[in-house]
Amino acid sequence: MEGFFVTGTDTDVGKTVVAAWLLAQLDGAHLDACYWKPVQAGTVPETDSATVRRLSGVDGARILPEAYVLPEAIAPHEAARRAGIAIDMARLIAPPCDDGLLVVEGAGGTMVPLNNDALVIDLAEQLWLPMILVARSTLGTINHTLLSLEAIRRRGLPLAGVVINGPETPHNRAAIERYGQVEVIAEIPWLDTVDRAALLAIEPEIDLRKLARAAT
């Protein structure tokens, strides 16, 4: 497979917006890519798949069905337990698409549990796609980002770079790049309107197609 695994330093850091941005950018470059959210925890006001389809403007056929949709917006292992469901990792390492580029979005942060035995980073290791780490731009991001980068590198996983979400904070970006020895591939500012046009206007700082092939 070629593509990306989108993970975060925390929950609500903007992984879904970044996934939509990736899809819009790849589509704008005439590169067909599919999106897959293996485990969705929480369905209100809409699923992440629905958000990505709405924001990216890609054909709905390229939004692949989730392996698990859990009603509560909490960590997947607990959401599954409360729903009486056992998350089987075998269903998560076989994407319903084996052709072209694939954008996979994890659940919560990198070290969030999926079941009693596996974390999000274990799924990333199985899929072996270049990882994009999504970080907020504001206070606390340096610590969270460096810890996440350390976890990714300890596993020897392919790393495409970091995408920063939020108001421009140059000193935080500089610290992440220096101490994390990583490239920031894009910064997504607060947007009054988030739609395909707005996402296409945010150009990546590195060639996405080359990054998608980093693990091959």
Keywords for this entry:
two-stranded parallel ribbon, alpha/beta, 216 residues, Rossmann fold, single chain, globular, six-stranded parallel beta sheet, 8 helices
Explained architecture:
The protein is α/β, with parallel strands linked by helices. It has a single domain (2-212), classed as P-loop containing nucleotide triphosphate hydrolases (Rossmann fold, 3-Layer(aba) Sandwich). It has eight helices and eight strands. Strands 2-5-1-6-7-8 form a six-stranded parallel sheet, with helices on both faces. The chain has a two-stranded parallel sheet with strand order 3-4.
Overall pLDDT metric: 94
SS content category: alpha/beta
Any idea of the CATH class?
Alpha Beta
What would you report as the Rg, rounded to the nearest angstrom? 16 Å
Named at the architecture level, the CATH assignment is: 3-Layer(aba) Sandwich
Q: Percent of residues in helical segments?
A: 25-40%
> What is the β-strand count?
8
Q: Structurally, how many domains make up the residues? A: 1
